[in-house]
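PROTEIN–LIGAND DATA SHEET

This sheet pairs a single protein chain with one bound small molecule, pyridoxal-5'-phosphate, given as SMILES. Inputs appear in the order they were entered. The predicted three-dimensional arrangement of chain and ligand is reported afterwards as a token string under its own label.
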Amino acid sequence: MTIKLPIYMDYHATTPVDPRVLDEMLPYFTQVFGNAASRNHVFGWRAEEAVEHARERVAALIGAENPKEIVFTSGATESNNLAIKGVAEFYREKGNHLVTSVIEHKAVLDTCKRLEKQGFEVTYLPVDRYGMVDPDDVRKAITNRTILVSVMLANNEVGTIQPIAEIGKITREKGVLFHSDGVQAIGKIPFDVVKSNVDLLSITAHKMYGPKGVGALYVRRSRPRVRLVAQMDGGGHERGNRSGTLNVPGIVGLGAAAEIMRREGADESTRILALRERLWKKLSSSIEDLYLNGHPERRLPGNLNVAFAYVEGEAMMMAIKDVAVSSGSACTSASLEPSYVLRAMGVGEEVAHSSIRFGLGRYTSEEEVDYVANLVTDKVNKLRAMSPLYEMVKEGIDLKSIEWTAH
Ligand SMILES: *Cc1c(COP(=O)(O)O)cnc(C)c1O
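PREDICTION REPORTED AS:
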């Protein structure tokens, strides 16, 4: 069997639109093009019907009791902003303290930083070497001024799944609202907002085989009823929570993607997990000095984050340029910074720079996994053969004993 190149293994960054999702969306561009807020004619009614159907499908995927708890947004960046700023502003009288973790997505961390400038206090909880937040730390961080805890469901770099139900028990007991960024995990692991006591949940379509630029925020309406200050002023759409003409085709796409996930997510995860294990077995049996970043078990089925010691991640990505993956470095304007997630887990700078994230998904095949495993093995060996550091290590020289001179 011949392999089609390039191969996509970056499903955490985005996913292709499932053709079934696209089929459902298409009529809403040209035929059923009404404004869902047009209450006085059939064009509007049909658009609104489609939006409400999508709302039900999204609610069903996450176990929400009432579709009215779903607020459509432009994606998870907006959902995270709306959840955190919206709660902070509404409950300011009650308290000015928020709790989150150091490994959240930038859409959460930068939102918290902005709030700090406005006088809020934020506690950033550490993680262990697997990238896990300790629920006990959440308990200890909560004061009588705390209004919100925000911890992601699963991390986008290392795939670690957080103990959300344990944290939810604590926040409920303490009477503090609980937000979770569910982007990477929804549909891929069993999850239910009611059982987990999550009060606000962010999701986005383009990480689950829907279109880019559309997402949702779950906002609990009872026990407790969560109140928000809207971040966008305008026509009062989405029950006043998010003004702006609804992206009807996008919302239909999000609904269709959610429905497919609800029906097929569990089976799909089983299949993808087997592929990930196959990739890991092949790599770890043929390459020395490689390390798994993240938790060995509590991780997303499609996530494999591996450090190939003595091989720069960037060099590796160049060497396997027909395979789309991500590295453990973040390109800032001038330099390559090691990922803040890996650093927070206590992963050394060298290891972080030699880390590669493989993201497997709906269209990943066994043939692709085998091809990538062979290619990576070959390239790691070649790159190491050219590395003076690796030579020294193999000769038994302790790198720490070398006095490096800097000029
Ligand atoms: C991709 C991602 C986001 C941002 O979602 P957008 O819809 O692209 O704005 C937020 N959180 C996590 C964990 C993500 O992976």
